[in-house]
Amino acid sequence: MVNRKELNPESSPSAAFGERLRRLRDERGWTQDELAIRLGCTGSHVSAVETGRRPPTRRLAASADRVFGTGDRLERQSRAVRHTALLEGFPEYVTHEARATEIRLYEVGVIPGLLQTPEYASALGDSAVKRGVALREQADERIALVAQRQASLTRTPPPLVFVVLDESCLRRPIKDSALMDAQFARLVEFAELPNTVLQVAPFNIGVRRPMTLPVTVLTMPDRSLMSYAESANRGHLERDNASVLPILGDYHQLQAESLARAASVSMISQLRKGTP
User: What pTM did the predictor assign?
Assistant: First the structure.
């Protein structure tokens, strides 16, 4: 076949799915257009999925399972591809977060997922779709993941959750005032739980701020530590205690510089009233 792109299934989940789809199609002697008719899409779409240029939707993967008689294997494999809409390391991090006994997180610019209302999470998802950085299905899975992570906090016994929000998280408007008011109410409710500490890191900390990027530190049941940090395009999960301890030290310093819980709740309450 002329200009047939070679695929390396080990290069990414998307390439692995595309290689498998192509192999199943080749085994039956079908062209991309012939498979497309059976899947209810176009030949160009099949080509884009096979070469990893477009992630498979859940619907397409389920249709392929039906066409090839593969049970739900393709649909399950497609989940790993759709998780590539998340930063590297984050899906694995979530599995550890669900078991952690203590969660310490610092966020900048946006309310963290563990504290988002469904409306806030949906507004962020809608924005990602409009900007073309996520498909609708990918955005919906992100929203579902927010709910899944929040549900894990209600386990028995619940984890201790320490949250430091940069003031920018509160000052950045998302959608409308009604949505933000409900989000602020959610923060106050979270701060009143017996297993949580919520603090705001005000702008006037200035150069005393030890952290500038979001970070999370987990304490696991065996008291081992993990950290997860993100840059613009990559996430990194660190499991080495010796590497995490300095981050934990910076986090403690950040807590000391931040507003106390009562003062943090007071700031949020003032913002709800429209007071600077």
Answer: 0.71
